[in-house]
Amino acid sequence: MSELFDAVDALLASRATLPPPAERKRLRAAHGLTIDEVAGALKVRRATVSGWESGKTEPRPPERDAYARLLDKLAELYPVAAQAPAPAAEDGPERDAPVPATFTAVPAPAQPTEPTSADGGASEAVKPQVPAEDLVDAPATAPRPASTTRPPTSRRPGARKAASAGTPAGGTDPRFENGPLAVVDVEDGKVVAYCVGGLVLDVPAKSLPSLVEWTLKEGKLGQPKLSGPGRPADPLLVLTQAALDRYGLPTTLTAEERDAGRIPEGHKVIKQLARADWKLTKRGFGPWARIYRPAKGSDRQCVQLCIPSWNALDPRFWDHAAQLPPAELARVLGTYATRVMTPRGSTAVTSLELMTALHPPTHAVRDEETGALRQADTKTPGSLGSTPVDCAPPEAPNGHPVLNDLNLPRFHVRGPSEMLFEESYDWARPMTDQECTLRYLVGLDVNMAFGAGANGLTVGLGEPTHVKNPAFDPKLPGSWLVDLSHVDLSHVKAGKEWVELDGSLLPSPFTPKGDRPTGPAWYATPTVAYAVELGYDVTPTEAYLRYDNGRYLDGWYQRLRDAYLATMADLGVTTDLSPEDFLTAMDGYRDRDPDLGIVITAIKATAKGGIGKLRERPRGEGWRSGERWRALDRPTWRPDIRAAVISRTRINLHRKIVKHAAFTGQYPIAVLSDCVVYAANGPSPLDVVPYREGKPLPGGFKLGVNPGLVKHEGTQTVLWGEEVREKFNAPDLNLARSIKDGTVSTADNGE
Questions:
Q1: From CA 240, how far away is CA 191, in angstroms rounded?
Q2: Rounded to whole angstroms, how far apart are CA atoms 640 and 269?
Q3: Phi/psi of residue 471, each to 5°?
């Protein structure tokens, strides 16, 4: 009979009555529970509970029974209070005047709190860890939260949630207590804003100008400054298609608008903004629009818009973020904003903004006579300043105006002795007979290679100085004209010892294609320094050196590194894992939390894209060769810094390749940027990377999550590699490009 009773109970549970979605959220908030706490107790994903509360999905057994039990208990503790009906919305013209925020904060049960933070902001309440089964029963002896009265004009109550992924762990700045950004959506005819940590606000604004006013005066959105001389980040509003429609904006762009990157200046919404004295930046109203009024002293009024349906979130760098529901999108962007910074455009643009935010070009100084603060006329030490500097002629890409004075012949193609070619590897070679007897091709990928290459790198901060016949100084950043063709990879120093190698199986460290140089060429400092490290003398004949220099990218790298490691740790991949455990943890790590998987993609794109953006080329603009283009007007247009980072990244990889060859006798068959492919007897990276008593080869490859260490990129068979090369009649086809999934494609992957 007990089995029959169990079956009946299960049948009843499958039809357990649940309150409406809005009531589910109210009950959880009234008890001071976060979405994460409920998800943890029911052993489901955070997004699952969010879907139950928004009504997008419904729970199924066995979670449905437990969820119904939780809500029934909460309903007994917090019955719905009688309220007067809210007045009907008034009909009439839209108003642009600012209106107060209409959300109700539901306080959590009384808990001990941290002391007030040093900057005056109150710290978050500290909640004791409560077992899952005690989530409801605990308040029997705890004080009940004070009841709150919902304002008559409120459309949807919002509740401040406890810290979760993407929420600051310490005290919050009261100016930005609702987080750095909000995803604005329309639900049941009402405009709501999804913020970080599960907070939802009512948005009473009926037009875009009033939305901007509300954001600045009532929304309490933004982010504290990242450095002492810097300024806080402007609030970011992400507009869904429903919000675009509500505020009179197109939900998608026409082909002409996509090409222009903006909607026409005569659009009615732009006219609304102009009538309310709001301005747009030069790039107009596009996927990443900035709406502002000129600053008056320290009073800055600026709001950033992000419009996913206008391709603001490029899928190459943000995966499927643009298709996420508002609450999940707020979590993804909020986590990125909290750990990196509030997005200011593409990941590449945000990367440059992060560099500037950590090293602001100017700083405030106090006037000795008046005592007032003003911006200094000179640049902040360690920054690039506010005035762009011209690059040296060999550092300039073709068409740069600095080349106009060289009187080069028309259609002249500059060679290595005239132009700095510091680029990432794209090298491959045919497999040897011995390698063809092995079974597998194993790809190793360097974690955040360009970030690791920037770490500790001294770069120029100011203008270059032209020097003839300089003595090489490895500590001095610059571009050097030097002949490195005498460096023989068959006989080099690996550490302090000379080793004999098969140089024909190694790429040259001095050219992106891996070819041995044939004469003088321009190189960045890390490349020339590596020639000296390999045991060879160098004699530069010319150089452009930067005596004003510093480790400008250290803070940028550390911020991205910490964001990457924290997010990977949330996905179960930590820095203390053994090689075997690391490989296990990396297997399907993105599936554990797809939202955080998107954040990882964006962080890596930020590191790579920022370095590329340092030498941005013309983007339309009606540009002609020899004329200046828009990117040249920013201090972060620095091709010399880009060259130095790429040079060091390439050299770091080559150093590991040499150490590996000297120790194991294994040579790479392909290298592409930060990926290297070896032939091996087994399919695992452990069949390539040597470990003795759990310790890796000093200076060689090491498995791990830290930037600069390597992970498994992919494994294919040697037979696959030979068939692909034969199919394309290319014995040196770069197999590193296809090692991940075996698909040979020329599609743009954002590299």
A1: 11
A2: 42
A3: -80, 135
The residue assigned the tokens 């924290």 is 566
- % helix / strand / coil in the chain, to the nearest 5? 35, 15, 50
Handedness of CA 39, 40, 45, 46 (dihedral sign): positive
% of the chain beyond a pLDDT of 90: 67
Compute φ and ψ for 524, nearest 5 degrees.
-80, 160
Distances (CA, A) of 198 to 34, 39, 183, 223, 699: 8, 13, 11, 17, 45
140 within 8 A of 90, measured Cβ to Cβ: no
Distances (CA, A) of 47 to 254, 263, 328, 492, 550: 33, 34, 7, 55, 44
pLDDT at 155 over 50: no
Which run of H or of E encompasses 641?
helix 639-664
**Residue 721 CB burial class (10 angstroms; 0-12, 13-18, ≥19):** buried
Q: Which of 708, 706, 44, 605 is nearest to 336 (CA)?
A: 605
Task: Give the whole-angstrom CA distance, residue 127 versus residue 112.
Answer: 8
pTM over 0.85: no
**pLDDT tens digits along 504-546:** 999 999 999 999 999 999 999 999 999 999 999 999 999 999 9
Cα radius of gyration rounded to whole Å, the chain: 29
Q: What angle do CA 365, 179, 295 make, to 5 degrees?
A: 40
3-state secondary structure of 355: helix
Q: What is the C-alpha to C-alpha distance for residues 698 and 659, in angstroms, rounded to an integer?
A: 8
- Residue 268 burial (CB count, 10 A): 9
178: helix, strand or coil = coil
- What DSSP state is assigned to residue 703? B
Region of residue 179 (left: phi > 0; alpha: psi -120 to 50; beta: else): left
CB 196 within 8 A of CB 353: no
CA atoms within 13 A on the CB side of 404: 9
- 181, 170, 91: which is closest to 123 by C-alpha? 170
Nearest to 75 by CA among 121, 26, 32: 26
- Which residue intervals of 247-309 are DSSP H helices? 255-260, 268-275
Contact 679, 435 (CB under 8 A): yes
Per-residue pLDDT tens digits for 10-45: 555 555 678 888 889 888 887 878 887 888 888 888
On whether the CB atoms of residues 520 and 433 are closer than 8 A, the answer is no
- Residues 84-117 have pLDDT tens digits of 333 333 333 333 333 333 333 333 333 333 333 3
Number of helices (H), then strands (E), in the chain? 20, 24
Q: CA-CA distance, 214 to 720, in Å (whole number)?
A: 59
Which value, to the nearest 10 degrees, does the dihedral of the CA atoms of residues 601, 605, 606, 608 take?
140
Give pLDDT tens digits for 716-740. Answer: 999 999 999 999 999 889 999 999 9
Q: 446, 710 in Cβ contact below 8 A?
A: yes
Cα–Cα distances in angstroms (integers) from residue 647 to residues 209, 212, 308, 551, 667, in the given order: 47, 44, 35, 16, 21
For 592-626, b/e burial (b = at least 16 CB within 10 A) is ebebbbbbbbbbbbbbbbbbbbbbbebeeeeeeee
* 3 state SS of 387: coil
Which pLDDT value is given to residue 50?
83
